[in-house]
Amino acid sequence: MKRLFTLTMLLFATVVFAQEDEKPTLSISGSVDAYYQTYLTASDNDAPTFGTAFAGQSGFALGMANVILSYEGEKAGVVVDLVTGPRGAGATFATDIVDGIVNQAYVYWNVSEGTTLTFGRWNTFLGYEVIAPAANFNYSCSYLFSSGPFSHMGLKADFTLGDDVSLMLAVTNPWDTNDISMTGEYGLGAQLGVSGQYLNLYYDSGNNGGLGFEIDYTGGFDLSDSFYLGINAAYNDNDGAGFYGAALYPQIATSDDFSIGLRGEYFALHGDGDDLPSVFATTLTGSYTVDNLIIKPEVRLDALTNADGGLYGNFVDSDGVATDSLAAFTLAAIYTF
């Protein structure tokens, strides 16, 4: 009887714990970041800009704070990513940097073991970098990432085709039209992933501020246990004009707590005319981790390789005179939870 009672209790406990495992679970994560930036070749008072997204302030500045709520059931779930601060406002094209902003909000359904449908607003699949700074090695952003979409509003389907092969298909509102589409136009997206290498495609009509067509490759290779090389290349065309470029991200881990990485990027505009601007940007970043805190000292130099002035405005020197280069030092702190 003791044995029978023990076996019965074990069976009951197993059933109870199994049932508890099947209950929906709520998880909370997020990050907070701030930085200090000073220009090495210009006066901080002139507030020059690299022409890329985020980290565009001099002196002490807030990046963003975000909280991600994820409620996951056995077959379906929901994710809500709320952000505030200048970086969040820039990513969502909001005018108020104080109020809460919806960065991502979507529901998903795991239709089968290898198929997931997602409906709502999610961050873009294009490019090597992302909005949340904790997931990027460099604190400042590239021209390629800054020129593409930040988020999409629509429906996507993710398929697992094999151990290392995936496919994503999406229909969305046009480029960065995250809330509504009042023109009756839509965008199409696709991503093919093979062993950590991704070929991304996006298309909309290009009207009403749309992006047009973009093809993008994102990937990387572990060259050794401590040396990683990331790669990003993209070409965009919107009625004969657009941009193209490539970036390399070599990163070396010198210890468990510290890594150093370089982003070397060439970026150019194309279209009518022979003297469209292009730039070569070099960013050297260190990354030191203490528990959940990441400290990133960074030096960045952008040098124009064609045309006068910057890509989206002029670089200036310490006298406020237009020049062909701009350098800055940035110290960022990012805490994740």
From TrEMBL:
The keyword Signal applies. Keywords: Signal. Residues 1-18 form the signal peptide. InterPro entries: BBP2. This is Porin. The lineage of its organism: Bacteria, Pseudomonadati, Bacteroidota, Flavobacteriia, Flavobacteriales.
